[in-house]
Amino acid sequence: MITCQLLDGKFQERCFADFREISETVERNRRKLHDLPLEVIIALLAKLGRSVIQDPAINSLDGVSYISLWLRKGNLEKICRLNYQGPTYCEDFTKTEHSFELCALPRGIVCHWIANNVPTLAFFSVVQAVLSRNGSLVKAPEANISTIARILRHLAETGVEVAGKSYSGKDIVNSIALVSFDGKDNNLSTRFSMAADCKIVWGGSDAVRAVTALPQKDHCETIPFGPKYSFGVFDREFIESDRFEGALAAAVKDIAIFNQAACSSPQVYFFEASKYGIDEIAKKLRYFFEKLPEKLKRQPVSQGMASRIINARGHYLLDESKNIVKSDDLSWTILIDEDVKLEEPVHGKTIYIKEVGNIDRVVELVTRKVQAMSVCILDECKKRAFASKVAYKGVDRIVPPGRMHDFDLPWDGILTLSRLVRWVLLKN
Amino acid sequence: MSHLSLNTLLATEQYSLADAEKKASLLPVIREQLARARENNRHIRSFFDKQGVDVGRIPTLEEVPPMPVQMFKYFDLATCPQEQIVRVLKSSGTTNNLASKVPLSKITTANQIKAVNATLSGYLGKKRRVFLVIDHPGINDHRLELTARTAGVRGLSLYARKMHFLLKENNGKLELNLPEIEAVARDCAGADVYVFGFTYIIWSVFYQQIRDMKPGFKFNDVRLFHSGGWKKLEAQQVSRAHFSEEIAKVFGGSKSKVHDFYGMAEQTGIIFVDCEQGNKHVPNFSHVIIRDWQTLKPCGVDEPGLINVMSILSDSYYCQSILTEDIGYLVGLDDCPCGRKGRYFRFKSRMEKVEVRGCGDTFRA
User: Fold this and answer.
1) Could you tell me if A182 lies within 8 Å of chain B, comparing CB atoms?
2) Are B362 and A204 inside 8 Å of each other by CB?
3) Does A215 touch chain B (CB under 8 A)?
4) Most buried among A39, A42, A243, B321, using CB within 10 Å?
5) A198-239, pLDDT tens digit by residue?
6) CB contact under 8 A, A262 and B67
7) Is residue B364 very low, low, confident or very high in pLDDT (cuts 50, 70, 90)?
8) Check whether domain A2-226+412-427 has CATH 3.40.50.10490, yes or no
9) Between B71, B352, B358, which is nearest A204 by CB?
10) Cβ contacts (< 8 Å) between B354 and chain A: which residues?
11) Residue B233: pLDDT band by 50, 70, 90 thresholds?
């Protein structure tokens, strides 16, 4: 059984046995989206950004204020310019340096499998399909479907005037269907996969492997955003500089956002040996954890997360070679040890901190599974050299503290919009 | 308020102490036991020191640091000198392949036996009884690690005069042990018996196979104890009342004498038996705190939280405060209609550990 929360612009719950009617409706409606100038799509999305932040029902949710920032016109324009290698390829055939013209056309219907660790993930996934003018079938987690529906309702009510002509967000929303079904139902999962001209998969290893293994159309493009890991590093000069405390405050915010469950959430920080001992750094971190706004400090903890935090704390309390600084409740935990390794995530603002003799020891830990690295190296040349080393080993994003969750495109090393279009050439 | 010693608490009629009275008795005993634990175990010393706990000055039972039950798998939590440990009980868990290791001294073992006797005597009287186990004999092999199933059998067998296993294993499948069942029906007619089994096995194996037979049990008095989760039975829409009624019929007993109980290998000797009202009562030598899994603070009545089981039975391992991975809720204090004093609670479920963690789930390749 498929439950559809949005179809043909109507926000009402309907049940379907298969995806035929749903995909036919989206296929029909995506034509209007295709015909909208990119300038109009961006104007509608930018106006949406200004309106969601006014909605008290959702503006306090994790990530919604960031949506508002991300949807600024200038940001969307820059994203499109970078992903489409120029401003006009997605509007019409455009001359290249070669003997042909080039045009970026939507692939058709994008089926999105959305993970549930980040409430706003479905929205970001859908916007990428919209900016590439694809129709979308979105399998969103039940816990987050109301958030994305609420944002899309705003979009449906959004209107703009560009070059003297009125446009409505309805033309975008009509090309989107929100569905939910049991992911373990192989039959429905296969049908969903077969409906796709492109699949975007967000999730853990099992989910990504299962979805990528499903039968699909021969031409279907698959964009997997699989399990990733993030961490940070500080060099001695940075630690001893006057920028250190500000960076620690920003690092704590990176930990706290999404209660540390995102792939861009740092799980470990390495500190090069400095005039501050690791216990002193832990004290500073404690101060910033305690200073967090209440909403970030006390986020809901699931039973599974509570179990992991309680057990991690137990290990560090009992093991004499380790140390721990923690809140009385399960709000935040700092686990201190000397093992130079990347630890399995605990989440729930449980951060491992480790002292290293030289930050270059961290380079060998990097694998292709590392997404974001928060790098604090004072000397710019040293920083660039370090970035080259870790990038070669596998890191996708090298960012300063406080910017780990910035939804930049490329993401996970992928220029998504570029993959969401067919590059069609015209040779004369 | 006077403080009672462990021996007095064991000898006193169970469930006769009011909650406040019992708490006042347990605290000084626990402080003393923890001082010894701190002296004898560097891990426990680290555990207290990192939390700034001065064991001699712990003000309330709520502030005794609870040990996460999983830590028995990773650390030696002995609280006495090694030479006093006579046996290490190993209990296999369901979460991973590691076994909990529970070091037992002679004193601990003796206290556990006294505790089970003291608890069960409230249900079974003073005389030892014939013990019928709804499982196969291999379950009681002492060379094997303890599981939730075997822990129940071994814990309750401390009260047994004689044991009979009503099931047998045949090519890895459980089935009725018919010759044994016939022998019990013949030889134990008119006797007082007690029965134990794992809830799901009682229903899905024993009951399904025996319900159409007439085993001809004619006991004088029969009490049935069962433990283990209800999830599978709930999925089959079997209510507790229906379960009790049907199982009581098989043994020719009363459904009011069918008791669910809760216990764990790490707290052997302490069993929380359902009273006639369906509530679990806490014996004199034990205490239960339900803790909010977010704040770790004690929950109020009806608020679900982690079950924290406290005990003074062991001088050989950290039993004084163990934080389980089970969810329960407090029903009340000192006022259960069954007449038992002290706090009473209900078990709700195991902690939900399975969760989809999305794209930030693991570093493992």
Assistant:
1) no
2) yes
3) no
4) A42
5) 999 999 999 999 999 999 999 999 999 999 999 999 999 999
6) no
7) low
8) no
9) B358
10) 304
11) confident
Domain boundaries, chain A: 2-226+412-427, 229-399
HEC assignment per residue over A332-358:
CEEEEECCCCCCCCCCCCEEEEEEECC
Instruction: Report which of A336, A266, A332 is spatially closest to residue A301, judged by C-alpha positions.
Output: A332
CA distances from A114 to A413, B116, B149 (A): 19, 52, 40
Residues whose CB falls within 8 Å of the CB of residue B351, separated by 6 or more in sequence, listed in order? A303, A304, A306, A307, B293, B306, B325, B326, B327
Q: Residue A360 — φ and ψ, nearest 5°?
A: -65, -20
Q: Is A189 near chain B, with CB under 8 Å?
A: no
Structure-block tokens of residue A108: 């058709």
In the block, residue with structure tokens 């990176």: A254
B297 touching chain A per CB within 8 A: yes
Contact A314 B67 (CB under 8 A): yes
Interval A385-400: pLDDT, tens? 999 999 999 999 999 9
Look at the domain A229-399 and name its fold: Aldehyde Dehydrogenase; Chain A, domain 2 (3.40.309)
Across A337-351, average pLDDT: 96
What confidence score (pLDDT) does residue B155 get? 76
Which residues on chain B are in Cβ contact (under 8 Å) with A267?
363
Q: Taking CB atoms and an 8 Å limit, are B357 and A347 in contact across chains?
A: yes
Structure tokens at B325: 């991975």
Examine the pLDDT at B79 and tell me if it is beyond 80. Answer: yes
Q: What integer pLDDT is reported at residue B310 of this predicted model? A: 97
List chain B domain ranges.
Answer: 6-86+275-350, 127-262
User: Does the domain made of B6-86+275-350 have the CATH classification 2.30.38.10?
Assistant: yes
CB contact at 8 A, A323 and B50 = yes
Of the candidates A311, A347, A367, the beta carbon closest to that of B70 is on A311
And the tokens for A87?
Answer: 């401003």
| ipTM summary value | 0.89
Distances (CA, A) of A338 to A278, A280, A321, B50, B71: 10, 15, 8, 17, 21
Beta strand residue intervals within A88-195, DSSP E = 94-95, 100-106, 109-113, 135-139, 159-162, 165-168, 176-180
Alpha helices in A162-302 (DSSP H): 170-173, 186-194, 205-212, 236-239, 244-256, 278-291, 294-297
Select the residue of A230, A306, A317 nearest B50 (Cβ to Cβ): A317
Cβ of B351 within 8 Å of Cβ of A306? The answer is yes
Q: Least CA distance to A322: which residue of chain B?
A: B46
